[in-house]
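Re: the 411-residue chain
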Amino acid sequence: MTSPLAVEVDPLEVGLDPARLARIDRHFARYVEDGRLTGWLTLVSRRGRVAHLSCHGQRDVEAGLPVEPDTVFRIYSMTKPITSVAAMMLYEEGAFELTDPVSRYLPVFADLRVFQRGTATKPITRPATEPVRIWHLLTHTAGLTYGFHHVHVVDEMYRRAGFEWGWPPDLDLAGCCAAWASLPLLFDPGTEWNYSVATDVLGHLVEVVSGQSLDDFFAERIFAPLGMTDTGFAVTEANADRLAALYVAGTDGRPVRNDAMGRAVLRRPKMLSGGGGLVSTAHDYHRFARMLAGRGELDGVRLLGRRTVDYMTSNHLPGGADLETFGRPVFAETPFTGVGFGLGFGVMLDPVAHRTLSTVGEFTWGGAASTVFWVDPAEDLVVLFLTQLLPSNTHPIRSQLRQLVYQSIVD
């Protein structure tokens, strides 16, 4: 189907200067012209209406197909906020408490051990002093990790078990959870922040608690109510021609096509990754972000109570710490200085420390292929940038996008 996404309001009506908004397009057009990106889409909406929408470059260079408003993108870790919303919808129904041990619902997470020293083949571990709780999954303080970090011995253990930029092909979500639970934690739950497979575990918790597969829960409880018709764990046959190709940064930073990873979304996966498995469009993700901006409600459809969204988008790191002081120095989808973490979102604490134009209380996350979104409640602003270049730290897209969006606000 053709996306209904379009500019809905004169920017000046919502306090945005059109000439200043045009700076966004000129700046990122250079990324395409000099070969840093193949193509991109950017959207800025304020007070619930799209004020700026632009596409530039190609969604598939080899086929000569342009980026269009209805292009389908792999959103990778921008799946995490959706999984977090799903979990909190069940929380609102009284299905669990945030302090519940995960093992109450997923028994494989009982009796976890923490890495002390040794090697990936001969680790020395001890019992964890605290069980992994649901709150730990939502905040990435569980002690889990990602194989692609290449920082800690446990990261290597994940890679040896088949987890780096994916998972063993014979495992489903339950099987992956069992594998992760068999590996040691990096630290005792609640003592540090480490970007990890925690949201994938959370997705399995959603399955067990709801009695539905994760894709069915998403489709029935989130996508259908919000009108997110093009979002899912696989691209439908009808939408395959709208799918952007996936590119990986080469040694010189230039995009190199990667169909081995890119074609995975053409069929329903065995492993439904709540941490990074979805594809979506600008129209659909904008609907999701606007629901969050509406504190759980959009166009008469309420997924969450306003108090729940406020709680999710508060900083949950102990003592009000930012990720720089409480997190491990690893790859993640946001810079660490001046940014805290809530239940599924990075939360801006200190724009001065962050060294980029931004607003206290805005919340955000991004995806591994350089996608990003944020919601600024104070400015009633939603921003979305979609492209397909792995990894997301190849270029300073996110900081530059912030400075260009915020300089356009003139009211």
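The radius of gyration is 20 Å.
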